[in-house]
Amino acid sequence: MKPIIEVNHLTKEYQLGHITSLRDNLLNTFKRLGRKPVQQRESFKALDDVDFKIEQGEVVGIIGHSGAGKSTLLKHLAHISNPTKGKVIVRGSIAPLIEVGAGVNPEMTGRENIFLNGAILGIPKKIIQQKLDEIIEFSELEQFIDTPVKRYSSGMTVKLGFSIATSLDADILIIDEVLAVGDMAFQRKCFDKMEDMINRQGKTVLLVSHNIRQVERLCNRVILMDHGKIFAEGDPTEVCNLFFNQSNEKIKANVSTSTHKNVTQTDDMLYKKTIIYNNDNNDVDSVECLSPMRVIVHFDVLKPLKNICFLIGVHTPDFLYLTATNSIDEVKDYLPGEHQVEMAISSMTLLPGVYSIRVWIGTPEGKVSFYAENLKNFTVVSEDHLLTRQQEMGLFYLDAKWRFDAIDNAIALESA
Predict the structure, then answer these.
(1) How far apart are CA 215 and CA 62, in angstroms?
(2) With contact defined as beta carbons under 8 Å apart, do 168 and 124 qualify?
(3) How many Å apart are CA 197 and CA 166, to the nearest integer?
(4) CA distances to 15, 27, 30, 40, 46 from 37, in Å
(5) CB under 8 Å to 243, separation ≥6 — which residues?
(6) CATH class held by domain 261-392
């Protein structure tokens, strides 16, 4: 049996636009008429010699950073865009859900759009009528189904589009990141519906999402794209691991050049630096997960200070506060001069990833002498494969112990 989708050396090239004057436009026109060379605009390859096949019933995830070419690829699979080179062969009908409003006529009502999409897929009107109540119920738009779609919110439009795409009998379902627009409860419904289509109906599904955990869970193959090319392809766990590593390296590159944030600096003291030491007493930028570490903050006191305490915390690169501890039970007085404070952590329970240190210095009553975020960036690493895989499931390692008891057997033995 031939693959349901074949992508053969697909290339999509765009000419980057430049604003030109009327005079330049006229000169270029005369040059073309005179068959003289015209200055060419810079080209950009959104897709660069992409080549793969998808078998019927496969569930394939397409992942990668923004600009990797994921959405451009899906538009070619849905025949929304034409390739510069290469070709795409699709053997079956496609229900695309590529962007908010795609395939939906805003001037028509929700009900009319259901019939329109069914007709585009070649489904008889009688069959659409039989499925109509099911589609409307799933979309949760009963009250608005006879309202023109142009009056819908983006979330309502996604609900309608997804309900149509998954309820009408297309051979291939193509879903881009649009599910992120809907509310959390509807997203849950969508993923349950997709799992039903995959496990019970055997549909061919192509899924683009930044929710890597969902991609790994739903797909039996994952394609990682980078700068318009296929960077890796194969087992979902292996390819998703590779993407996590890429992401961490990118985050480290970005935060290494970033500056302190939300800084409060008084004339009481001068912050100097923050150093992290590992279990071997080395000044490091990365620590092993579950190993000890020490954070030392250096500062100069410029005026005599009384009742000073410290707070040292950790946040993600996008400033989600994760944890913090303070020394409020051990307030200190300080004379002018150089000082340091140390916080020792017996076990770094943050899962592998990139994090930053924030520091607060002041009195228990709340008078601030210094505060800043993003003072020191560090990476938690681990060679333990299972620990590394948990980074998409949470932020902290849960130190738990398991116990397994065969209750039925125990009851059977007692009765015997």
Answers:
(1) 8
(2) no
(3) 8
(4) 17, 11, 10, 9, 26
(5) 63, 64, 212, 224
(6) mainly beta
CA gap 294, 204 in Å, rounded = 51
Please answer whether residues 105 and 30 qualify as being in contact, where contact means their C-beta atoms are separated by less than 8 angstroms. no
Answer yes or no: are the C-beta atoms of 352 and 289 closer than 8 Å: yes
> Would you kindly state where each structural domain of the chain is located, as residue ranges?
5-252, 261-392
Are the beta carbons of 298 and 340 closer than 8 angstroms? yes
Class of residue 390 by CB neighbours under 10 A (exposed 0-12, middle 13-18, buried 19+):
middle
CATH number of 5-252: 3.40.50.300
Locate tokens 């076990």: which residue? 347
Among the listed residues 62, 84, 78, the one whose alpha carbon sits nearest the alpha carbon of residue 13: 84
In three-state form (DSSP H/G/I as H, E/B as E, the rest C), the secondary structure along the chain is CCCCEEEEEEEEEEECCCCCCHHHHHHHHHHHHCCCCCCCCCEEEEEEEEEEEECCCCEEEEECCCCCCHHHHHHHHCCCCCCCEEEEEECCCEEEECCCCCCCCCCCEHHHHHHHHHHHCCCCHHHHHHHHHHHHHHHCCHHHCCCEHHHCCHHHHHHHHHHHHHHCCCCEEEECHHHHHCCHHHHHHHHHHHHHHHHCCCCEEEEECCCHHHHHHHCCEEEEEECCEEEEEECHHHHHHHHHHHHHHHHHHHHCCCCCEEEEECCCEEEEEEEEECCCCCECCEEECCCCEEEEEEEEECCCEEEEEEEEEEECCCCCEEEEEECCCCCEEECCEEEEEEEEECCCCECCEEEEEEEEEECCCCCEEEEEEEEEEEEEECCCHHHHHHHHCCCECCCCCCCCCCHHHHHHHHHC
- Dist CA 234 CA 231 (whole Å): 11
0.70 cut: is pTM over it? no
Q: What is the pLDDT of residues 142-192, one digit of tens each?
A: 999 999 999 988 788 888 888 887 777 778 888 877 566 556 777 778 778
> Which tokens hold the place of 270?
């001068």
Each residue's pLDDT tens digit, 54-89? 999 899 999 988 888 888 898 888 888 889 999 999
Q: What are phi and psi of 68, to 5 degrees?
A: -75, -20
Q: Which residue has the tokens 């943050």?
A: 350
